[in-house]
Amino acid sequence: MPDPPRTEPIAALVTSPEGRILAESVLGTADPGRIALSLDGFCSSMLGSPVEEVLFCDISIGAAFGLRLGNARQVVLRAHRPDRDPDLLASVYRMQLHLSDRGFPCPRPVLGPAPFGAGLANVLAEGVESEQPELWKQDRRLEQHGPRDRPQLLSTG
Fold first, then answer.
1. Assuming Cys at both sites, which of 9, 40, 49, 60 could form a disulfide with 70, CB separation 3.0 to 4.6 Å?
2. DSSP 3-state assignment of 2?
3. CATH classification code of 8-126
4. Where are the domains positioned within the chain?
């Protein structure tokens, strides 16, 4: 069995009292080792590959973990509090999948809401920019200009 992922990035989340409270409410624990094992178990069972590395993590009303899996795939796991409506999360998953399938520059959903921690989690593919380069570039160009310039940019490509 491979070693569980390192816990340093996760430990940084729970150094403050607020971080510990948020971790308990979203993840069901504030123990970095247990969180790492939960991530590893979830990814192994739901995605077919264990966590090799925790690339980033953040927590507020939910938690986000950038993960490199053992199969080299990079994903973002988003954990939600138990009071989040599962039907709403499933609708967001379907809409994001619909948009991604049609070339909209957004992360592609990999897994819809599934039990994780104290609530539910969904998983997104990382690397939108490489999957949708032309749309992403156009979107970035639009961000660099004011509202009056945007119609002209859209019409000229």
1. 49
2. coil
3. 3.30.200.20
4. 8-126, 129-157
Q: Long-range contacts for 105-111 (Cβ within 8 Å, ≥24 apart)?
A: 105/129, 105/132, 105/135, 105/136, 105/139, 107/76, 110/47, 110/75, 111/46, 111/47
Q: What residue type is assigned to position 118 of the chain?
A: A
Q: Chain-centre distance of CA 154, in angstroms?
A: 30
Say whether 131 sits in a helix, a strand or coil: helix
Q: Where are the alpha helices (DSSP H) in 102-147?
A: 128-131, 133-143
**What is the C-alpha separation between 100 and 135, in angstroms, rounded?**
11
Structure tokens at 110: 């990999």
Give the count of beta carbons closer than 10 Å to the beta carbon of residue 122.
21
pLDDT tens-digit map of 128-147: 443 333 443 444 444 444 44
Residue with tokens 């979203």: 26
What own/partner pairs with CB < 8 Å and gap ≥ 24 does 8-16 have?
A: 9/54, 9/55, 9/56, 9/57, 10/35, 10/36, 10/54, 10/57, 10/65, 12/57, 13/57, 13/58, 13/59, 13/63
Q: How many Å apart are CA 153 and CA 123, to the nearest integer?
A: 33
- Are 25 and 118 within 8 A, CB to CB? yes
- Who's near 94: CB < 8 A, 6+ residues apart? 112
